[in-house]
Design brief:
With 194 residues, the chain is of the alpha+beta class. The protein is 16% helix and 49% strand. The chain is built from three helices and eleven strands; from the N terminus they run αβββαβββββαβββ. The strands form two sheets. A five-stranded mixed barrel has the order 1-2-3-5-4. It has a five-stranded mixed β-barrel with strand order 6-7-8-10-9.
Length: 194
């Protein structure tokens, strides 16, 4: 019994001495690796996130940046969140760091120019998805290219055009501003319907 108490006491003593002399792992508080950067360029890729998105863009010299564009971060800094798409030009300012040669920026300021291009497409409807005030029609043109066209009562009324319901298999002509997603799919906000 005395041996057990003695061994327990020695073990506890050694443990206490070890914990008093052990050095703690230093924590880095050096913030010099983060600096504020301002950059502008054309968006080449979008990755959607929980409260915003990450935009990969290249400046005029070809340097690549990745900007984290978050609703919460922009609100905290007094900035305004705007959704931009591939092909749009953006300017961001915020804390940055290097990630394997690519500058990462947490946007605290954001501005840009949307490059909606108005296009006209005629083709056959291959798929219909109903929405709350209209529908989304997948249109395949004569060359086999597919477009996703949002046909909305409100959008057509705003542009002075008449809403009409089409079905899969019908031929349709649409006109409106377009944009492409990160996979290259073209979307059209229909403002004229024939």
């Amino acid at each position: 019994m005395k041996k057990t108490i003695l061994i327990a006491g020695l073990s506890l003593g050694i443990f206490n001495m070890e914990s008093c002399t052990a050095s703690k792992t230093p924590h880095s508080t050096d913030m010099n690796t983060n600096k504020t950067v301002a950059a502008s360029g054309t968006i080449t890729h979008i990755e959607n996130g929980k409260d915003g998105y990450m935009a990969t863009f290249k400046d005029a010299a070809g340097k690549e940046y990745v900007a984290t564009i978050s609703i919460i971060n922009l609100q905290k800094s007094g900035g305004e969140f705007t959704r931009y798409e591939v092909g749009d030009t953006i300017s961001v300012k915020g804390n940055s760091w290097d990630n394997n040669g690519v500058t990462q920026i947490t946007a605290s300021e954001l501005s840009g120019t949307k490059t909606d291009e108005t296009i006209s497409v005629t083709g056959k409807i291959t798929k219909i998805e109903n929405g709350k005030d209209g529908y989304m029609a997948t249109i395949q043109d004569s060359a086999g290219k597919e477009y996703a066209a949002t046909i909305s009562i409100v959008n057509l009324q705003k542009s002075g055009s008449q809403y009409k319901r089409y079905e899969a298999g019908n031929t349709i002509s649409v006109k409106g501003p377009s944009w492409k997603d990160s996979q290259g799919k073209t979307y059209i906000k229909v403002e004229k319907l024939d």
